[in-house]
Specification:
Distance between the termini: 20 Å
Strand order of the largest sheet: 4-12-11-7-5-13-14
Low-confidence stretches: none
Bound molecules: manganese (II) ion
Largest sheet: 7 strands, mixed, barrel
Mean pLDDT: 97
Strand content: 25-35%
Radius of gyration: 19 Å
Helix content: 10-25%
């Protein structure tokens, strides 16, 4: 058999499992909330054009309204000022949209501390157990935060001191940007940075350092618990918005059954 027949028979015979890592898009999809004076993104909304009625008797269709950074979405390098000369979302090489992925699971630590930060030492310990991070692949950072994704208040988890959601330290972001062979980081939270990252130096280090290094972000992923630590293949499909800084994306994982 050819390789593509092998792939299809693997999927259809159940030797390869498909896992949808994408959050459903609706008006309830949580969106990031920036403080004054910054402009916020609109959320997702449908506007009906016709539904088998006098506006279009045989057809149903909608206009979609959405920010680029809504729901499960892809951050292109040009999203951040440090990556302003980098790729926009339509320019991402196709070979980066299907790539190996590994999962580092810090969900137990995050239960104890919603402001938990991933450190280089955690990744070194992970590598001692599982081997090197994938060359040309994704680091998927599991925090258990996807359990909150149907409840915007719990998902954003903000109080008077700001949002409390897990992320990574400045040093960890620098190491992933400069030392690790990965193409990007995927997270379960509303953005790739910690809720408190506005106060870090530099602020929002995952954005500043990874996008500045030409790497990518994926946010609001779900079901990472179903993935093995190593050995899955990630398909990320952002819309090719010309000049766009990012896009809602369908993100699928292929895993060995
Ligand atoms: Mn984003």
């Amino acid at each position: 058999m050819g390789v593509l027949e092998d792939l299809l028979s693997g999927v259809h015979a159940g030797r390869i499992e498909l896992v949808d890592l994408t959050a459903t898009l609706s008006e309830r999809t949580p969106i990031i909330q920036l403080p004054e004076p910054f402009v916020n993104t609109p959320g997702f909304a449908l506007e009906e054009l016709s539904r088998y009625d006098d506006r279009g008797p045989a057809w149903y269709w909608n206009t979609i309204h959405t920010g680029e950074h809504v729901g499960t979405h892809f951050d292109a390098p040009v999203h951040w000022v440090t990556g302003r000369d980098g790729l926009d979302v339509a320019e991402i090489p196709l070979g980066h949209l299907i790539a190996p992925a590994v999962v580092v699971d810090m969900s137990a630590e995050v239960v104890a501390d919603p402001d938990f930060l991933l450190e280089v030492a955690h990744l070194e310990a992970w590598q001692d157990e599982h081997g090197p991070l994938p060359d040309g692949g994704w680091l998927l950072y599991r925090t258990g935060w996807d359990a909150r994704s149907d409840d915007a208040e719990a998902f954003l988890n903000a109080d008077e001191s700001g949002p409390h959601t897990p992320g990574m330290s400045v040093e960890c972001a620098r190491w992933l940007a400069e030392e690790a062979p990965i193409i990007g980081v995927g997270v379960e939270t509303v953005g790739t940075d910690a809720g408190a990252a506005h106060s870090f130096d530099p602020p929002f280090p995952c954005h500043a350092l990874l996008l500045g290094a030409g790497k990518y972000g994926l946010t609001q992923l779900q079901q990472l618990a179903r993935l093995p630590a190593t050995g899955s293949v990630l398909i990320a499909a952002p819309l090719p918005i010309a000049g766009g800084s990012g896009s809602p994306a369908r993100v699928l994982a292929l895993i060995p059954a």
